[in-house]
Amino acid sequence: MKSKRDIVTNWLPRYTGTKVEDFADNILLTNFQSYVNMFALKMGVPVNGMDRPMPNATSKAHNISIINYSMGSANAATIMDLLEARSPKAVLFLGKCGGLKKTTEIGHFILPVAAIRGEGTSNDYFPPEVPALPSFKLHKFVSQKIVEAGLDYRTGVIYTTNRRVWEHDVAFQQRLQAMTCLGIDMETATIFIVGHHNDIPRGALLLVSDVPITPEGIKTEVVDKAVSAQWSDIHLELGIKSLMELESQGEPIKHFKY
Questions:
Q1: Which of 100, 136, 165, 226 is packed most tightly, with the most Cβ within 10 A?
Q2: Residue 178, SS3?
Q3: What is the CA radius of gyration of the chain?
Q4: Model pTM?
């Protein structure tokens, strides 16, 4: 295997248990197995790759696949590299984030206009000066579906970090507030940057699952289960409908090659 294309074409099935050609043109990414299971149930399709690192399901009828890449920026970069073997039309990340503003409450949806690259992984793809941005036209489809569902959403900047346990660190919290970020997560900037590097249209629809800047707002297992029970199905449905709309319109997402 001499080229990157050779490697990712071999490795995508290795990580997912699914042949390259069996993936759809439109991809939902998540780090929750429950989303994959819900998708498979809604679409009446099997879950593949349960014995592999990245379980997945595909609806050929709707031309949509969903992949659980697990957690963290390293895994997010890996799946965005592996998906180069499929050259998808669009990749939409359905993730959760912590709200960093008093006005950002649990259950709110965020369409990030950009992400700050605090995770370090993306530095292997572009210099730090390159901004982590979504594909605007993909977010246009997502925003339309949110409005049609009678829901509200916020736009702003997400801070992406590799640091999982930081809620106790006052200095880190002050730094986040100084950057005026709307939310914090572990993958958005990586997905945007590696998508840019691999010429893959990409976006993110984030669900605020906790408000970690206050002690009472830090996520617990009880809170996470409650958020998932109330909002996960809506979150997934918005992702599915956005990609279905994109597929039916046949509208290209990316206009330029760099």
A1: 100
A2: helix
A3: 17
A4: 0.93
